[in-house]
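To whoever picks this up:

The nightly regression suite flagged PH (Pleckstrin Homology) domain-containing protein as changed. Nothing in the input moved, so I suspect the structure step. Input below, exactly as stored in the fixture:
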Amino acid sequence: MTIEPVRFRPSFGRILSVVVVLIMVSAAGGYLLTGNIEGFFRYSWWYAVVAGLVVAMYWSPSVDVHKNGVRIRNPLRTWEVPWAAIERIDTRFALTLFTPGRRIEAWAAPASGRFTVFRVGPDDLRVSESARVAGSVRPGDTLASESGQAAEYIRRHWERMRDTESLDHGDGHVTYRWHGATSAILTGLVAGATIATML
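Regenerated output under the current build:
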C-alpha cells in the first residue's frame, strides 16, 4: 500500500512569521537610521528574541505524512509516530494522535473555532466515518480547518491499514528528538538581550 508524502504547514503561521520578522528588523533598523548606535546594541537583542520565538512557534512546525507514519514537528521537539502506534486521531483543540501511554498534539494543525461552521460548505463535510462524533462533524474535523485537512489525510490511510490488518505487523514504537539548536539559539538570544540591557 502506497501513500503520497504530504506536508501540512499553517499558512497563517508563515504569514505571521514573515510580518513579525519584518517589523522587528524595521524596529531595530530605526535605531541605526536615527544614529542611536547605543540603543541599537542595547535593545535590538530583544527584537531578535521576539523574531526567534515567532519563527520557532509559527514557521517551523509541520506535520509530515509518509509511508512509515506521521512526523510531527513542534517548536522544541519532533515526534516520529509509526502507523501501528496510532490508536485514535482527534481534533478537539489541535490535530492530536493518541498512542499507547501518550497523546501528541501538532502545533502546525490547530483546530478552528466554532465560527468555522459559518463558512463550511458541503464538500468540507466529506470526511471519513471515524471523524464523526455521534453522527456530527466537529469544526476541527471539517476540511475547511487546518486540523481537519491533516486529520482526514491521516485517517484515510490509517483506516485502510487497519481494515487490511497491516497495522498488526508494523513497528509501534514512538520516538522523538529535541531541537537542541533551536533551544540554544533562543537561550543565547535571551542571555544576550539580558546582558545588553544591563550594560
